[in-house]
Task: structure prediction
Amino acid sequence: MLLPLQDILGAVDSVEASMPAAEALAATVAASMVAGAWLHWGGKSNSTATDSLETLETSTEAPSNSLTDIEPVGDSVDVADRLIRDGRAALGLNLQFADELNESQRQRLRESLTRRMAHIHPGRVRLESWTRVAEHDERGGSRIESVDAFWMDRAPVTNQEFARFVAAGGYQADSPWWPEEAKPLVSQFVDRSGSAGPADWHDSQPSNDRRNHPVVGVSWYEARAYATWAGKRLPTDPEWLKAATWPIDSCGNLSQRVFPWGDQLHSQHAHLWREEATGPVSVDDFATGANPAGVRQLIGNVWEWMHDAFGEWDEQLPFPHDGSLVSIRGGAFDTYFQSHATAQFFSAEPRVERRANIGFRCVVPACHVNIEHNG
Amino acid sequence: MTQFIIQPLESLHLAKYSVQVRCIVCGGDNMYDADRCRHCGAPMAISTRAADSRRELPHFVAALGGANSGKTTYLSMMVDILSRRANDPQLIARGAFSVGHLRDMVHQLRHCRFPVSTSEKPETWNWLHGTLRRERKSPIDIVIPDFGGEAVIAEVESPRNNAIIRSFLRQSRAAIIFIDAARLAAGDSTPDYETMRTISYLSELPSRSKKEIYQSPVAIVFTKADQLEVAMTAEEFAIEKASGVIRHCKERLRQFAFFFASVTSRTILEGDTPIPLRVEPRGIEAPIAWLADRL
Result:
C-alpha cells in the first residue's frame, strides 16, 4: 500500500527534530520503504513504479528534505564521502536527491555503489515449490516470475558495515527504519553485554577478528532496518533466485543453474558443512563461488534473510503459513546436505529469530538510483 | 541296466544345521543361516562376526529414551557424520543391515522428513554395528540397537517385561539417555520422570558392586536443543529443568555428562507431523566422543 507523501513526511517529522540532517533525509526514504513503496517501485509492476516515482519526487519540495541539508554545519566531511564511508551510496544516488549533488559527488557515489553492488539484468526466473526442492517430489510445481533490473550487494553485509548502523543510533526504537510492529521489540535486540547490537557482539561492537565476517545474530527486523537505513531493501525470493540461478531465457525456454557458478558443487565454491560446523568465514573467501556478475557467497557461509514471507511464492506449500515465518535462502556453514544448499532450496525462520548462521545482503531496484549500467 | 544320476551332497549343509550359532545379545541358539536371532531379533551378523573374529567381543552401547525423544534421528545422524569424518572419532559401519538402515534414515532427513518412530516390535528394530576409531586408543567394535521408545519405557517401568532389552542392558558397557529438551523447556516433566526411572533401572541391574550404582559411563543428551530459547550449558539446563535427573545421576551413576544435541534447526507442523525445514546437526559427535574415551 502506498501512503500519500504528506503522510510519509508526517511520519518522520517527530524524529527529524532530534536527528542529524542526513538521517532526517534518509528517514523520508525509510518511511516510504516502510510503506512498501520501494518494493512495488522496483519490483513487480511498471505502472506502480511510475506512480511511486511521481509521489516521491514531490518530496524534494520540502526544504528539510533537501540534500544540501545532509552536510552538517561544522563538519568538513563531504556528504558524498560520508555516505560512502557508511555504505549508503545507494541513498545518495536515490532519484529523489541525486540531482542535488554535483557531478563529482554523484560519480564518487556511483563508483562506490558499483564496487559494492553488482547489476542484475531484468528477466524471467523460475521458482520451484517446496514440495519439489525439499521433498524431491516431481509432482511439486514451479512458477515463473519477471524481475526488473536491480543492484545486489556483492557480499553479505559484514559486521564492520553493520557497526556503522549501530553507531549511527540505528537501534533507537523511534527511528524510522523500524516498522511499527517491531518498535516494542527493539529494546530486546541486544548483544551478550546487553547493549544494542547483534546477538554475538559485545558492548555494541563485533570482535576484531570478525569485522569482515557476515553479520549474524540479527533478526529479520534488524536486517530490514539496516537495509532501509542504507537506502536499500532485502531481496525478494525472485530477485535472489535471479542472481543465484542466472537464468538464460532462450526461445521461451528458461535454463537455470543449480548453483551460482554452475550445476556441480565443489568444496572450494561454498562454505558448507565439512566434517563439522566451523562457523562463518570472511565474505572475501570462496570467490570462485561467485555468480557471473561477481556476487559472492550466495551459497554457503550464512543463510540470507529474504524480504518475503515463507510460502509467498509457493501456492503448493504443504503446511499452513500465516506470514509469521520469513524465507531464508543459500545454506550456511553448518548446512549438512548439499541438496539443502542449492539455489532453489529455501527454509524459514520467525522474524524475531537471531541465529548464528543467518545474515543478509541488500538490493536496490535499478530504477531507483541515478546510475546507468552499460554491461 | 545301470543308470547314473547326480545326487547333490547335502551332508555339509546338514552338518552346518546341526551346529547352532549362539546370539551374543540374548544367548539364544540359531541356525547358521538365520538373518536375525529368532529369540531377540538382533542381526545374527553381529554374532557370526564376533565368532569369526579373534578380536574382543563388540561393546554394547545402550540408547535409551521414551517415544519421540529423538533416538532414531540422532543415531542416524551420528553414524552418518562419524562415517564421513577424516579424523577420529570415526565409525566404519559393519554389515549390510547397518549401512541399509543408515541410508534409509538419512534419506528421510535429506527429503525433509523425520524418520518413522521405531515400533515396539523387536523384529523392526535397527541395529547399528560398526568399528569406532578413537583418538590415542585402539579401535573397538560397538553395537547400538535402536529400541522402540515405548518398549524401553515398558521395560523400565516393569522390569523383566522385555528380555531382549534387559539382556542387552546387562551387557552394556555404556549408555546414552535421550531427553526431549523441547518438552522439558515447555514445562512438561514427563521426560524428567522417565529419565529418573531409567537411571534407577540401570543402577538396579545386577552388578559386582554392592551399592546400586551403575558403573558404566552414561551420556545424557538433551535432544531437539534447536527449539530452546535459552543460552545456557547442558548442565545448567539440567539443573533448571531436570532437577530430578540431576539428583539421580549424582546418586546412581558413577560417570555421567550432559550434552545438548540437535539435528534440525526449524520444524513446522503439517497436521500433527513435524517437518524439518533444514538439517543443521549440532552437538552430535560430543556424546559418543566422550563415551569413546571411557570405553
